[in-house]
Amino acid sequence: MKTSKSYMIGDGLTDIKAGQMVGCRTILIGTLKCDLCRVMETMVVKPDIITHSLFAASKIIEKEQAEDTIEIKVIEEEVKEELV
User: Terminus-to-terminus CA distance in the chain, angstroms?
Assistant: First the structure.
């Protein structure tokens, strides 16, 4: 499994820290509150994305994966042009 292309979604900082430790993109389900900001700063843990629901997280992942696919196609086309 390519962890750099995987996501860890969780509702706690331990979930985010676990995802970061293995190289995953991380999504925190919840809202950013001042007390949570202080805890994240103390623990040196910051999710890549914060969203309000698992559904919203799934939409973000779909969008990012679609963008990755577009980037790969562009690179493939550039390589083909260089070979011609």
Answer: 35
